[in-house]
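batch job 7 of whatever, protein = VOC family protein
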Amino acid sequence: MNTHSTDTHIGHVHLYVADLTRSLSFYREVIGLQLLRQQDRVAELTTDGKRPILIIEQQAQPLPKQPRTTGLYHFAILVPSRQDLAHTLTHLLHTGYPLQGAADHQFSEAIYLSDPDGNGIELYADRPRSEWVWSDGELPFVSDPLDGDGLLAAADDTPWTGLPSGAIIGHVHLHVADLQAAKTFYCDGLGLDITIPFRNRALFVSAGGYHHHIGLNTWNGEGAPAPAPESIGLKWFSLVFPDDAERQQVLQRLAEIGAPVKTDNEIPFTCDPSGNHIQLITSR
């Protein structure tokens, strides 16, 4: 068992897109994010008007999102309540934008779709932690059908004005090439704990007893290659530590397992064995 604080969490996701104008329209009008700032080919999107949870960047010469590679499976926006998720689903149905699925994971209820470039998105609400069914420190791998009618019944008549200010990036789910190598990196290096172990060619890890901050799977194939640098998809996501002391412990662990660390503008970055990049930042 690792010792990360419950304050360790995902900060933001940085995506490459093909057309910034198209993506801005989607993320503002369909998903309900607000534009925080925009400069050249980069836009930052927020829910609270203060911090970005999503950064989208238009590639200069983009390649379409490549199949059968490592990289982003989906990023997941956590809304504060079931009623918020009900409002979100009601809004999505009104837009007519195609949904790709919905599920009840026992610890959460989730809706799935993709952005115009094929980047996967989950919108979800957690059930109370008292309802999570732990057994020997593990959660079950559950993906039951969502009770859509029951969820919609939780909505009231409040007009849709976008995602609530408390919505955050709850987790990121990644395609990797090798689950054992991923386990070494995310558990021994980043210090995260396994919460759902090796089910259905997937592994889920977290800090502070959350159901998962990072999902890992080999559904694009064992040994899948990393996408080309110009490909649409994930540039990086940030992992936020409560203070620099905890981050320094992680940097030492990464060094001990031989994981790469580089610094950009005094911010450390690392990269998992499958080519997924992670920015390591602190909340203060």
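notes: The radius of gyration is 18 Å.
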